[in-house]
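Per-residue structure
===
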Amino acid sequence: MHLNQFLLVNDSMERDMQGSEQKEAKISVLALLAMVLSVLMIAIDFTAFSVALPIIGEEFKAGINKTQWIINGYTLMFGVLIVTGGRLADRIGRRKTLIIGISIFTVFSVLATLVSGTLGVIVCRMLMGVGGALMWPAILGMVFGIMPSHRAGLAGALVIGTAGFGNAMGPMLGGVLTDILSWRWIFLINVPIAAIVYLLVYKLIEDDQPIDQNEPIDYVGVLTLSIALMALLLALDFGIGLGWEDPFILSLFVIFFVVICAFFYIESKVGQYALIPTDIVRNYSFMAAGLATLMMSAIFFAVLVYLPLFFSQTMHYSPMKSGVGLLPVMLTFAITSFFAGALYEKLGSKLILSVGSACLALGMFLLSSLTMHTSYLSMLFGMFILGAGVGLFYSTITTAALTLVPEKRASLAGGIIFMFQIAGGSIGLGLNTAIVSQYDLLSEGINMAFKVNGVFSILGFIICVLWIGGRKGPVNG
């Protein structure tokens, strides 16, 4: 009788444990869904407006020199504040930081639909960039926290693959909404996505308790780094139109140099409480990953701008068709990103990064022979190779970088890597624009710019081969 009771109790406990495990697994899946939706919201906004600028310019009677800031303003604020967002996520908690970021992003998405001028849209977009800068590192940290440590490759692939899918959908979705409804609907689609994320985060994700939550925030570091990066990115953006010898541009470069030197001096005195702690700066493998990201990001940003421009101006595609024209690059990027996670766990970071950077170089050189008579079909192979390179590289470099630092630094590390990506993209896009503007024919300018991008990718390939990761398994710090 006692034995039967014991067996019944034991059987009941096993069922309870199985039920508990199933419930936890379901919660984890829904929590990951919230992160995926958050990434989609950010990623779509990065690319959706690339095909809508001409229509916005017509409505507000503004030239491209103004409307381009609808994209540039968002990117600038994102790049300037991404490290601060990572530091804040590690300091006050990732869940709180994500909620604050989503709130800012959603509020100014709605306000952007109500303004009646270009300046109002630009300001709203810049403030959306602030929200995105808070969201991104918090999302990275939370995804790597939800996934088991031995599935780090899958976690990185999930984030970057989702971002690739969002980037791919952005131009197409932006073109469809602009042609059928209005460009304002690009903002409005953020609202239902944000509502779902709010619900899932509040219901399923517990408030995390950050380590060293009483350590001071390096406000001086935040201010000096923000000023330095803003000055650099503004100089690179305005330098094309005003000329590199213009006193205003030279002043911006001087401000950048002086303030960035002040930033490094201040950070050396603050030590472990610095915005970028000394253990991160002295992690040479991590910094090599950042440098490789800097080299490669010029390629991705240039492709997002100049392939649609080639489609619209040379092939005379509509906004919707230009967005669809990018799909071979963007969908290959998204699909390859998901597969890159499994490859990372089997082969390690060095081989995947080397293959990815080689594909980026090959794709650039394949696409550097455009003419007035180039057919879309003849571009497909180059676009597929390029998309595969982007997917292999970005997914793996993100995972490699985050596994090179302690878990408590994950959000900060994600912010730093993304800062390198934004800075590299801005620098590369400025250089590409300077090259293209020297040629009478758009195709000739793109050809030379893409050849230069190919050289950058070769430099990134060398960095990956020499300094990042090992042959198999996760990289070591």
